[in-house]
Each structure stands twice: as C-alpha cells, then as structure tokens.
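Example 3.2
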Amino acid sequence: MVCQANEPDKVHNPHETRAKELFSNKEAFVSLLRDCVKAEWVDDLDVDSLRKVNVKFVLQDFSKKEADIIYEATLNNGCEKVVFYMHIELQSSVDYRMPYRLLLYMVEILRHHYNNSDEKEREGKDFRFPAIVPIVYFSGSREWTAPTTLREMFDGHDRFGESLLNFRYALVDTKGYNDESVKNFHSKLLMVMIMFENAKSVADLIELLQRYRSEIAMLSEEETRILNLVIDILDIVYGTGEGKKVLSEIRSGSKEVSGMLSNLIQNERDREKRFINQGVKQGVKQGVKQGVKQEKINTAKALLGMGDSVEKIAKATGLPTDKIEEIRKQINAKK
C-alpha cells in the first residue's frame, strides 16, 4: 500500500514548487510555528536542532495530491524529540478526508522511526516515539470546513470519547491573514508570501510588492532567491513579466516606481475590462448562433409533421440530411 523513497521530490506543478521553496526555508518554517500555530511548546523548541528530512512518504491512494514538508527537532535542550509533518494543500476544494490522510502519513513516519531505531533500544521499556505534530497549510479560496480532529470521522465519536484514536492538526488557512495580522511575523518572507496568496491578478500582486517594499529590502540572499522564484511563477500564472519588473525597480530604489506601478495597475484594470467585454460579446454571439440553430430544428420538426421529404427540408433549413433523420427518429420515438 505504501511506498517510501529517499529520492528528491519530483515537482508536479509550479505552485508546489512555490510552497516547497518557502517552507524549505528554516526561518520561514519557524515563523510559521511561532506566528501561525502558536502552541505553548513552541518556546521550548531547540531552533538550532531543526532540520528538514528528505524521506518522502507516498500513499498510493493519494499520490500527486499534495506537497509535504517534514522537519525533525528537539525540545528542552534535547530532552524530547518532535517531528513536524506539514501537509500543503494545493487544491482549491476542501478535502474532508484530511484527518484520515494525515493518520496514514503519521503511521508511516512512526514505522520509519521504528525500523531505523536500534533493535535492542526499541525493545526496552524506555523506548519512545518522537511526538508528531501535523500541520495543514491551506491556500484555497473556499472556507476550510473539514474536521480538524480524527475522532470526528468516527461514528458515535461523542459516545465513545477518549476510547477512540484521536489527534488534532494545526490548520493554517491563508485567507485568515491580512496586513494587520502579519505585521509582527518573525519571517518577512513568510509575511510577504502569505499575503501573495490573496492576490487574484497582476494588479493585486503589484500592489502587494509596493506595499511591502521595505520588508522585501530586508530579505537575506536566500530569501531573495525564493522570492524571485515565486515572482517568476506568478508572472507565468498571470501571463506577464510585470511582477519581476516591478520587483527589480523596488530593489533599485527607483523614484519612478510609484508612477510605473500606477501605469501597470491601470493597464491591468483596462486589460480585465477588455476581457470582460470580449466575454460578453462572445456570449451574445454564441447565444445568437444557438438561437438560429434551434429555430432551424423547430422548422424541420414542423415540416416533418406536414409530411415533407428529408431532401426538401434540408434545402429549406440548411440542416444536413442525417440531422433531419435524427430529428425524425426522436419524433417517432415519442409517438
């Protein structure tokens, strides 16, 4: 049922690349724990011990459905071990199987830890598994309404209570963040990237770049590399190269950047209006075309009812003879 591989992850789409690059950055991941998860144990985390694990767990039933990130760390100066399993949900829809999916991954993490432990040690009374903290990072447009505990997926969970297997995952829904809620994030990269999730167009992206220009200027070389990659991806998604152009101007400290931003935003708004107008015109044209076709069919039905030949009806309506034969069969089937 389950395949484990130590090979580098294969990237399925640009959005997966974006998410994996962000949370492969240690500072961004720690900021996520401190600023989004906000659990009491975060203050006891030995940050220097945190390391990304390159083991990939692939479930056959859920292959190519998501990206994931796994970190290992210790707490309280090495006294306790913890594994963070972060599931990055790339689908726009809500997956109500999420607690079950997380359970399967967590079991595989435990199995991996057990199989790689010293045989004598794991048979002793003091053997312990590391704590596993599941996190779901969701950037879809809908509200997340899936259960956040495993217990809720069982019949009679209220009746059986603690007798049932259970855990709660931390949910980070990017829709819940705005300028005010991200302003004190420890990672400026995470701050900017979460706000990017709210961008719906090139104009939105450009406005965000301008708004966070001071935070962008503070990014390290590695964080800048990740931001450049993300802007490249978003430019591809939106079909322009404007994001990278604006980012370059912001970094150069150009005094003309505000005017350039205004022009780009206005151009984007105008482009959106043109698309809407084109869509309306195409819709009207398509509607007229469908109406004419339906009128020909109605005429053919009437002429068939009067006993006219297929050839005569084809000449009168312009419909092909096989279409008229099909209409005749439909009429006869209803008799």
